Amino acid sequence: xxxxxxxxxxxxxxxxxxxxxxxxxxxxxxxxxxxxxxxxxxxxxxxxxxxxxxxxxxxxxxxxxxxxxxxxxxxxxxxxxxxxxxxxxxxxxxxxxxxxxxxxxxxxxxxxxxxxxxxxxxxxxxxxxxxxxxxxxxxxxxxxxxxxxxxxxxxxxxxxxxxxxxxxxxxxxxxxxxxxxxxxxxxxxxxxxxxxxxxxxxxxxxxxxxxxxxxxxxxxxxxxxxxxxxxxxxxxxxxxxxxxxxxxxxxxxxxxxxxxxxxxxxxxxxxxxxxxxxxxxxxxxxxxxxxxxxxxxxxxxxxxxxxxxxxxxxxxxxxxxxxxxxxxxxxxxxxxxxxxxxxxxxxxxxxxxxxxxxxxxxxxxxxxxxxxx
Length: 373
Known about the structure:
Transport of phosphate groups from the cytosol to the mitochondrial matrix. Mediates salt stress tolerance through an ATP-dependent pathway and via modulation of the gibberellin metabolism. By secondary structure, the protein is mainly alpha-helical.
């Protein structure tokens, strides 16, 4: 009995990594591989099968089992997630630059840019086709940097907070894990984004200010100083942190519910194409929620970065409380819904490409314990 108690204690220490939060897998390892090297392995007869495989061995998901050539939660894993974030955020935000440009101008000058259709018309009449992509370079670079930090640090903090909570509480409070992990990641991501966002808004909303990042950045710094690039950081946090918390927590929940209620087979039995379709659908729905939650702060960011010396009070006085929540919202819902769906699709496609599982979709399984003799 003493030996069995020691085996259970050793196994529990090794099982503190809650692998059920990081996607499902059909691969398992015998519990002998989960026990510290100094502890003796339990016999097959003394360990019942968890999955009913008939092997007579107790089987649990391996917390560090490799997918393809990349070991889960290794430096290579986080590097892959960072690269996926660069692709997903940088490319998608650059693609929707025309929508973003019209949205920003509707927020800053609603008398001139009265609606989506008229906004595109005014832009085309004044600046031609090239005008639709003004500011694409700071958009690409800024959101690539943001995406690298957003997705890479989300995966890191999600595991980090899960390890702190332990398997039981991580399963019970998984949504809080998603919220805390995404908020922590976004604090860092916005520091990377803020200078590019400041230049982007100024280039897009003040014709003649600059052609792009190359001449816009030094001109901005000369006008307002280097710290001026970060004057919109707090409103940016106010916009992006709630946005990202909603983006990741709702995505994880929506995808889990899709696999639970809308698809007849478990996630690990679905084709990769179907899994990526679920990722896009979950991302689009999450994006609509994100747009609604973060829109007032988005109006503030556009206003503060457009006007030198402007304050939050000036923005509220100009927009009005209702205007902060509604001005430009329909266009932003379309833009952010499409954007977020595409981001999750690209991110998970890249993960599949390098041999990693797609994000979310597996409901937490109970933590199994070795039966005591």
